[in-house]
């Protein structure tokens, strides 16, 4: 890693940059894209092709203070049941528009807390999904599982429906940190959920942890990582906690003076990163780790790793359709996002319309920049040959762009005939380097810390 003084000089500890799970990033979506575009893009899907489906459940039993997800707290099942009816209608509309023979290469339930659905609701939802598109061979069906909100019956339903990847959020196991971030989830509860998941033959387990939390120290994150490793997860996402109380009001309950400094955040990340690598995980992109036999590791080695709204993926599908409030779909033509407010989304579906409220249609330049940013975030290199042949750009112009950007990073990047490389010591700067390839004005959007 480059010395901290050099990283500081380059602005790593002050920069606010996107995580680049899309390009352009969501703040650049506009209302120019609506339900008609969405329906047209659905109809343009090749008959018989494999697509991915994301289902969003924006409800939780309690609202954790650290969490910036758009979700509603509810103790009653009534709003959840009403939302399920909306999802079923939306899926039926989608099924009517989809070309024949489409199958799912990936199905993901996220939230919020999808596991707060009761077992009968889960069955209704899976039936509605598989009515319009069955899982394809070797498909992955993943569900975000809240260890505080799961039991044997619900896991039985999910396993019977074909769930083969489970994702659990851990944040940190330390008691003081859990109290400070308003999320109590003990090691034993998490262990029990993991055991129940494994007992049902679910092959793959993902876990998310956070660095940069209040009161987090090297010792505490080490303990959390060691406890997490006792579950032997197949994949781990190590995300930086984004403290944005002006956007996520619940975070105002978290004392800012207990937060680590940006320099300390980098140390916390490095501590956890080393522990995963020592334990035999492959490093995947900027913030994921995977066992060498996991699909992400295999995709990385084969040059097939991709970036999407869930972080990193080995999903080969060109189309990802999001259903539910605020879900984002990606098509070869552009992005389409459903209305964020559950009430607005529900009203549109009741009226028999898709709720697409905003989005973005790709220009040729968007596609080229999107690919360069994805290559940086996945492989830490941009292959000049791939970009010139795919997008018809002049090699000399591309090399000049690489040199211009490399000059902004103090000689840390390598520009050769083959392309641009981000050496290991410069990797903490990757999101800032990606920003240098971003043609949109980033000044107005409230992005999170670069580290
Ligand atoms: S962390 Fe999970 S349970 Fe807590 S508010 Fe966020 S989505 Fe809901």
From TrEMBL:
This is Coproporphyrinogen-III oxidase. GO terms for biological process: protoporphyrinogen IX biosynthetic process. S-adenosyl-L-methionine 2 binds at residues 66-68, 112-113, 171, 183, 208, 242. It catalyses: coproporphyrinogen III + 2 S-adenosyl-L-methionine = protoporphyrinogen IX + 2 5'-deoxyadenosine + 2 L-methionine + 2 CO2. It is found in: Cytoplasm. One of its GO terms (molecular function) is coproporphyrinogen dehydrogenase activity. Its cofactor is [4Fe-4S] cluster. It comes from Lutimaribacter pacificus. Involved in the heme biosynthesis. Catalyzes the anaerobic oxidative decarboxylation of propionate groups of rings A and B of coproporphyrinogen III to yield the vinyl groups in protoporphyrinogen IX. Pathway: Porphyrin-containing compound metabolism; protoporphyrin-IX biosynthesis; protoporphyrinogen-IX from coproporphyrinogen-III (AdoMet route): step 1/1. One of its GO terms (cellular component) is cytoplasm. It comes from the Bacteria. S-adenosyl-L-methionine 1 binds at residues 54, 111, 144, 328. Binds 1 [4Fe-4S] cluster. The cluster is coordinated with 3 cysteines and an exchangeable S-adenosyl-L-methionine. Monomer. Keywords: 4Fe-4S, Cytoplasm, Iron, Iron-sulfur, Metal-binding, Oxidoreductase, Porphyrin biosynthesis, S-adenosyl-L-methionine. [4Fe-4S] cluster binds at residues 60, 64, 67.
């Amino acid at each position: 890693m480059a010395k901290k003084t050099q990283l500081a000089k380059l602005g790593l500890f002050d920069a606010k940059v996107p995580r680049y799970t899309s390009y352009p990033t969501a703040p650049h979506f506009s209302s120019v894209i609506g339900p008609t575009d969405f329906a047209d893009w659905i109809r343009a899907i090749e008959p018989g092709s494999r697509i991915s489906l994301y289902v969003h459940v924006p409800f939780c039993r309690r609202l954790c203070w650290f969490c910036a997800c758009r979700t509603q707290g509810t103790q009653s099942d009534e709003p959840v049941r009403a939302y399920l009816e909306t999802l079923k209608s939306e899926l039926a509309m989608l099924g009517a528009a989809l070309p024949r023979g489409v199958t799912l290469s990936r199905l993901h339930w996220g939230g919020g807390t999808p596991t707060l659905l009761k077992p009968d609701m889960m069955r209704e939802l899976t039936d509605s999904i598989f009515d319009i598109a069955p899982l394809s061979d070797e498909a992955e069906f993943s569900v975000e599982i809240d260890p505080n909100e799961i039991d044997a019956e619900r896991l039985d339903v999910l396993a019977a429906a074909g769930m083969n990847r489970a994702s659990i959020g851990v944040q940190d196991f330390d008691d003081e940190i859990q109290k400070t971030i308003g999320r109590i989830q003990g090691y034993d509860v998490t262990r029990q959920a993991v055991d129940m998941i494994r007992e049902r033959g679910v092959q793959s387990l993902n876990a998310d942890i956070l660095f940069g939390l209040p009161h987090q120290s090297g010792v505490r994150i080490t303990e959390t990582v060691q406890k997490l490793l006792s579950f032997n997860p197949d994949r781990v996402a190590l995300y930086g906690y984004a403290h944005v109380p002006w956007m996520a009001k619940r975070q105002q309950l978290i004392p800012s003076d207990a937060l680590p400094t940006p320099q300390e955040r980098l140390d916390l990340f490095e501590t956890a990163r080393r522990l995963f690598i020592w334990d035999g995980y492959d490093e995947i992109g900027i913030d994921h780790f995977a066992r060498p036999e996991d699909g992400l590791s295999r995709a990385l080695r084969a040059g097939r790793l991709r970036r999407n709204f869930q972080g990193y993926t080995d999903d080969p599908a060109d189309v990802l359709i999001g259903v539910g409030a605020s879900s984002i779909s990606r098509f070869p033509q552009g992005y389409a996002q459903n209305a964020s407010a559950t009430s607005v989304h529900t009203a549109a579906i009741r009226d028999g319309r898709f709720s697409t409220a905003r989005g973005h249609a790709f220009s040729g330049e968007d596609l080229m920049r999107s690919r360069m940013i994805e290559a940086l975030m996945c492989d830490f290199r941009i292959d000049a040959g791939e970009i010139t042949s795919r997008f018809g750009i002049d090699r000399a112009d591309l090399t000049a762009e690489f040199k211009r950007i490399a000059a902004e990073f103090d000689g840390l990047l390598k520009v050769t005939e083959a392309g641009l490389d981000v050496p290991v010591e410069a990797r903490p700067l990757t999101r800032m380097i990606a920003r240098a390839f971003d043609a949109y004005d980033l000044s107005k959007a409230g992005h999170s810390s670069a580290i």
